[in-house]
Amino acid sequence: MNMLPFCESLLTVFLMYAIMKRILLLSLLAPWAAAEDVSTAPAVSAVERAGITGAGWAVVTGDVQARKVTLTYPNHPDDFGGTAGTGTSHSGDGGKTWTQGPDDWPIPKSIDLWQDRLSDGSLVAFGICWAPDPKKRGEQTSADVPADAYAISVSKDQGRTWSTSAATLHCPPEIGIIARPLPHLFEDGQGAWLMPAYAWGKRGTRALLLRSLDRGRNWSVLSTIVTAEGIQKAGASLTTPWLETTVARTKNGSLLAVMRTGSNEQAALIVARSKDDGVTWSPVEKIVAGPQRQIVAGKLPNLLLMPNGTLVLIAAHTKLGCFMHLSHDGTGCEWSAAQLVTKVSGGNTSMTALDVSTVLVFTPSSKRISCWQVTLPSVSSAK
Questions:
Q1: Torsions phi, psi for 125 (to 5 deg)
Q2: Burial of 145 by CB count in 10 Å (0-12 exposed, 13-18 middle, 19+ buried)?
Q3: Among 337, 334, 340, which Cα is nearest to 317's?
Q4: What is the pLDDT of residue 345?
Q5: Residue 163, strand partner residues
Q6: Whole-angstrom Cα distance, residue 56 to residue 103?
Q7: What is the DSSP string of 342-364?
Q8: Residue 31 in 3-state DSSP?
Q9: Considering the chain, what is the average pLDDT of its residues?
Q10: How far is CA 153 from CA 61, 162, 216, 347, in A?
């Protein structure tokens, strides 16, 4: 009996089945893929200068006709307080070209400094002028913090003139000391300013939310977001003293905090949520993203709620580069798969909103800070 015709028919049926299955799979994935894609323009150099470290922090001022981007960056090695000094760079064309601005402005001798824009249009700059010794983690107390460790500066004329004063961070002895206040400063809608930080103490490292009731001159601990014990309960491990934390308001009004737990590829970013303006926080969970529910790992995470309602999360990893995740409904409950901004740099990154759907992402490399213009998908196409 000749089995060849039967085998050929069977093979044909199998191939047709495989093709139809592939077509069906692609048809199901196509809308999702189109919704997730971001468009990244080629990088331009925002800064070219020897001795700089990190990507700095940018703020956008002015209106559509006269928009200005100011990038402030550490102009010294990453030695956690061993050296100080900052530089600035300005762009008046949406990040396409940059010119060098003044150094040590508006707060001199800062280890790190960033600016934020308040709801009334004024600018506030927070300067870190001192950092605790990591080798003495858990040993130092408030008596070791100098009076000029931090400074706050406010401008009511788009950065032309500034009023600067000392900023004091008050920390209960049982928590230890504030090891690092972190960007960004934001408002609670009732006159208070809020800012994330992490603390070192005898009881370990913890992420905090700080609050100021006098426009940044004095800060107190509003709440503990998470402790090392809380991280462990979530199935993660805190393997770094740098509990870098970012906090942002979501589209539904809650606060979302994302925190780093380590440096390796298994060190998941974790997330907590507050529904009472940061007074209390949910237990932390590992962030998972995309249809495959993959763990997100990275350092110095940044959150940004865009004017179009999309919540953006960026982070970087030495082996993975700089990547972006999107929460299209603005709540941070679900995240897209990673959108690669660049594989070239895995150093500390930052971002700012240029307009309704455009993000400027800043990444560091040797003697350079690059600016990437990233266009997000429209909210309608992402649904």
A1: -115, 135
A2: middle
A3: 340
A4: 86
A5: 154
A6: 13
A7: ESS--S--EEEE-SSSEEEEEEE
A8: helix
A9: 91
A10: 16, 6, 9, 28
* 9 closest CA partner among 17, 316, 265: 17
Tokens 């979501």, residue located: 250
Contact 259, 225 (CB under 8 A): yes
pLDDT at 32: 34
**Is the pLDDT reported for residue 30 higher than 50?**
no
Query: What contacts 134, CB < 8 A, 6 or more positions away?
Result: 80, 241
Name the burial class of residue 371, with classes exposed (0-12), middle (13-18) and buried (19+) by CB atoms within 10 angstroms of its CB.
buried
pLDDT band at 382 (very low <50, low <70, confident <90, very high): low
pTM, entire model: 0.89
378/77 Cα distance (integer angstroms)? 39
pLDDT of residue 23: 39
- The token duo for 101 is 């601005």
Query: Which positions ≥6 away from 83 have C-beta within 8 Å?
Result: 76, 77, 111
Q: What is the mean pLDDT of residues 245-250?
A: 99
Residue in 277, 272, 222 with CA at minimum distance from that of residue 253? 277
Backbone angles phi, psi at 275, to 5 degrees: -105, 5
For 286: left if phi > 0, alpha if psi spans -120 to 50, otherwise beta; the answer is: beta
Q: Rounded to 5 degrees, what are φ and ψ at 337?
A: -60, 160
pLDDT over 90, % of the chain: 82
CA distance 198 to 244: 7
Q: Are 143 and 211 spatial neighbours (Cβ–Cβ below 8 Å)?
A: no
**380 has pLDDT over 90:** no
pLDDT digits (tens, 9 = 90+) for 184-229: 999 998 999 999 999 999 999 999 999 999 999 999 999 999 999 9
Report the relative pairing of strands 218-227 and 163-169 from DSSP bridges: parallel
Average pLDDT over residues 357-371: 96
Q: Per DSSP, which regions of 170-244 are E strands?
A: 177-181, 186-187, 193-201, 204-212, 218-227
User: How far is 232 from 268, CA to CA, in rounded Å?
Assistant: 12
- DSSP state letter for 21: H
